[in-house]
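TL;DR need structure tokens for one chain.
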Amino acid sequence: MVELREVSKLYYLGGEEIRALDDVSLDIDAGEFISIIGPSGSGKSTLMHILGCLDSPTSGTVRLDGTMIHDASPRELARIRNQKIGFVFQFFNLLPKLSVLQNVELPMIYSGLPGRERRERALEALRLVEMDNRARHRPMQLSGGQQQRAAIARALVNNPKIVFADEPTGNLDSHTGEVILELFRKLSQEGRTIALVTHDPEIAAVTPRRIEIRDGKISKNVDPKLAGLDRLHGEPGRRKAGQSASTQSPAASAMGS
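>> reply
TL;DR here they are.
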């Protein structure tokens, strides 16, 4: 589904080289529910931007759904973002003058779909997050949790291969945040690939797999469902960077994980 091999991202500030990512290799399988966790400046946002076709690496290769994207043109990256990737952000980014339905329709306008099909698909996405009864409301008429659910519907409407959620509960109270995380869990159980990007260990703990970033490197790749030993760290429940779920230990395979 997603493959990174030896990916680095370099910036230059005042003549000084800054390695936002340093030789990162990673696999994300279709249908996985993962978190990418790290403190501010760790490189987690840079990793999401590269995975989400918002930026390109300085070196290394990136494959998304069978397509090599590390050297794609800006036009091609825009097409891939629209067709294969959904984004949910801490700030809901709903246009205040449009209805919820119209906000959810926006990605399909860029795809060139006719109006009737856009409305049908937007309503279906809103039904999925239990917001179809708010389709005609404006964002200002919604609670924070409702606005985030509308934003999730917008992220899902083009049936993306993967959804990136960047601090999706950061602007919500704890109860509403739990509701949103439960929605992501439900979506993952339906076979959607979800990646939460967060600095909060409690948020990361809801996902079966946790990828920890520090100083531009993957410091941990934790999957509690794996029964085998991590060959990188020698501790239970961790994957070596770049190891996919299909390369589990015999013990893990026997357990059906």
